[in-house]
Design brief:
The chain is an alpha+beta fold and about 260 residues long. α1 packs across α3. The relative contact order is 0.14.
């Protein structure tokens, strides 16, 4: 006889999904990598096939499982990366703050995994309203964007977009379409050293464009974390806006502050 869990006599889809999530987190399905057959779950939860289907759909939208027609429902293996973002105290303006690919690569490789970055796409375009606001540009002003996709073990893990006022990036290496290691060092070399940085962190569901670039499922409901760094130069004006978009289930952002 199937050992039914303690709980309501008839489980709702939400309750079934929550219980299955708990069991997955406890490693109950680690040996097979997939959920038990439908008939077994229907009996265990004293429910209908339709209610169970709705519960599995919730697990899919949470990004916890995938399904293969005729083969079953498989538990997603999620192995997040701890991305260590190094920062400094306000009086250490000359010290480097790493928020670029170098810090990402170091974080990934410290876990024994492989970090890579897709070729950077560089464009000069009118800044979106939010970018213009962060860079303190007039609405519709031109800016330079450097966009890249970071991968861990070949899987998309982060979007990394750098935005610069046009007068900062014009006729500089920032306009070149090859990868640049240490954008902050390049800014210093062209006379726009960063002396103050503001971090802005916000989470929400991915936009259609973000989901497409990160190769997420079209109906994914896992939140993404947007980490923005607005850097100001010696004249007090913004010289760079870094926008990192990281799926919440794949990334853990860790800040290390030097006292």
């Amino acid at each position: 006889m199937t050992n039914r869990p303690q709980g309501p006599k008839r489980w709702s889809a939400q309750q079934i999904a929550e219980d299955l999530r708990r069991r997955m987190h406890e490693g109950e399905f680690a040996s097979t990598g997939q959920l038990p057959p439908t008939r077994e779950l229907v009996e265990r939860y004293s429910t209908s096939g339709e209610t169970l289907r709705q519960a599995v759909l919730k697990l899919k939208t949470w990004g916890l499982v995938t399904s293969q027609q005729g083969k079953g429902v498989y538990v997603r293996t999620i192995d997040p990366v701890e991305w260590r973002i190094r920062t400094t105290d306000p009086g250490a303006a000359g010290r480097r703050l790493a928020v670029d690919f170098d810090s990402w690569k170091a974080s990934v490789e410290s876990l024994g995994r492989v970090a890579s970055q897709d070729p950077c796409v560089v464009t000069a375009q009118r800044a979106p309203d939010e970018i213009a606001d962060w860079l303190e540009l007039e609405p519709g002003a031109w800016a330079v964007a450097r966009r890249a996709l970071r991968r861990c073990d070949g899987v998309p893990f982060q979007l990394a977009d750098y935005w610069f006022p046009l007068d900062v990036a014009m006729n500089s290496p920032l306009m070149e379409d090859h990868d640049i290691s240490g954008v902050d060092a390049v800014l210093a070399d062209i006379g726009h050293a960063q002396v103050h940085r503001r971090h802005i962190v916000r989470s929400w569901l991915p936009t259609e464009d973000e989901a497409k670039r990160l190769e997420l499922e079209p109906d994914a409901t896992n939140p993404i974390t947007r980490h923005v760094v607005v850097a100001r130069g010696t004249e007090g004006k913004p010289v760079c806006c870094t926008v990192t978009v990281a799926p919440g289930d794949r990334n853990v952002l860790i800040y290390d502050f030097d006292e």
